């Protein structure tokens, strides 16, 4: 789509701030007016619109996409999205450990054990671990506590949490990032332990690195989005 607007501004709205292009409110794909609770987030989203040149590239507007998802999907079917995220707690990346080689076992313990400790201290959840690929069942009580924590978030936060969870393969890491129990870089490193071990052993692959770099950039924006939500 060709760029059709000249001006991009942020204005107050009921419930927060909205963005206008040539005086017209931007809308989601389902035609809802986009209103976000944080002026700083709205400003960053407006910057994405302002940065578009002759052709609008929605794939480069990650903050806007997360806000659209919050409004069009999460707000209208939050229970289903929360259930999807809770499902990650029942098969979380950091609960499935290698039993060899010892170097990988040590890396996993170094990166993942502090996250398990943080989850225990923050939510009272004692996630069980196992070796290999055999499923380890988490207690109903622990799963419910994770659900309660996610239920307490608003649609915008759940949208960002969903992006981090699916990218990390771990709701524990995503919650740690959201709640600032660990910073983004630490969570990213923890989510790539197995991949990095193989990379160190066998060498880099250009195609795999391109996919990895794209995912890193996408998740970094999700982290930025969540931080902007916390500032008015």
UniProtKB/TrEMBL annotation:
Short name of one Pfam family: ATP12
SUPFAM superfamilies: ATP12-like (SSF160909)
Keywords assigned: Chaperone, Transit peptide
Domain of life: Bacteria
Gene3D superfamilies the UniProt entry points to: ATP12 ATPase, ATP12-like
GO BP: any one term: proton-transporting ATP synthase complex assembly
InterPro entries: ATP12_ATP_synth-F1-assembly, ATP12_ATP_synth-F1-assembly_N, ATP12_ortho_dom_sf
Similarity section: Belongs to the ATP12 family.
Name used for this protein in its record: ATPase
Source organism of this protein record: Kordiimonas sediminis
